[in-house]
Amino acid sequence: MDDPRTPSTGAEPGDGDLVSWTTGVAAAGYEDRDMSIALQIAYPLVLRELGIVPHGPAVAGMLLDLGCGTGVLAELAAAAGVPVLAVDPSEHMLHRARRDRPHPLITYRRFDGERLTFVADGSVAAAAVCLVCCTVPDTAVLTALARELHRVLRPGGRLAVLELSPAGVGVRFSTLRFGDPGRSYENGELLPTFLRLHNGDVLRTACYFRSERFYRMLLAGAGFTDHMVRFPLVDQAAPHPGAALSRAWGAETTVAPYMILSARR
Ligand SMILES: C[S@@+](CC[C@H](N)C(=O)[O-])C[C@H]1O[C@@H](n2cnc3c(N)ncnc32)[C@H](O)[C@@H]1O
């Protein structure tokens, strides 16, 4: 098994070994991944960027979770009292989300991956897009999604985009690795991605590299303003409440695995 923490053997898998995100295998593996880093620094910060904090005043209106996967962020937002429309093109992901993370405040819905035809203009208070863009090979699809997000958000509504940090390419984080060490990647280039599962196996998936500048331009091109980008590190001294606390952290204490872009409609 490939271990994100061990040095590369040089025998990197070819594209054919990478699991497609639309498959049941990807959904099952993704559900079973070690989310320690994401729970520590990614999802809580995404929610904070959107003004959603535990026991805080609820965001007035609905959160759109675009590409909700197995529903982790949607569940956290609902637990904070926020109604969530959680959409994804994968029926396999939605099946697990509905089964494992049902909540009266969450509506899970399938969509075609490009158009939110069932969401009215300006009807959404905030939107989150977590680790979705990196799974989409086609830049035209990202452009269409960014325009849709701008359309459905109400004026002043906030968008948060969680993505793989370009600085983290090739770094062996304790639960994941994306890209080969020492290689640089062009925008849109395949980024082999390895996610550690709880049983010790590794889910090998296909992601696609994109730079911080690419994302800033994507959001600006769709009409978003007030862009900010954060590169959070795991802080051993100040663990996020509720996150996995007792574990040996690795490179994520010195290199950011994720970046969080936020912007305003
Ligand atoms: C890496 S998972 C992230 C899931 C979830 N947001 C999370 O943070 O756990 C990527 C998700 O993006 C979804 N996806 C793929 N293409 C998409 C598209 N065009 N629009 C929205 N979601 C898409 C996949 O089905 C998958 O559920």
TrEMBL record:
Keyword check for Transcription regulation: no
Per its UniProt record, what PROSITE patterns does this chain match? UBIE_2
Name the top EC class.
transferase
Annotated EC:
2.1.1.-
One GO molecular function term of this record is:
methyltransferase activity
The record's section on InterPro entries has:
Methyltransf_11, SAM-dependent_MTases_sf, UbiE/COQ5_MeTrFase_CS
Keyword terms: Methyltransferase, S-adenosyl-L-methionine, Transferase
What is an annotated GO biological process for this record, any one? methylation
The record, for Gene3D superfamilies, names: Vaccinia Virus protein VP39
Domain Methyltransferase type: from-to ranges: 64-160
Q: Which domain of life is it from?
A: Bacteria
Query: Which PANTHER family does this entry report, sorted A to Z?
Result: METHYLTRANSFERASE
This protein's name? Class I SAM-dependent methyltransferase
Annotated source species: Actinomadura fibrosa
List the top taxonomic levels of the source. Answer: Bacteria, Bacillati, Actinomycetota, Actinomycetes, Streptosporangiales
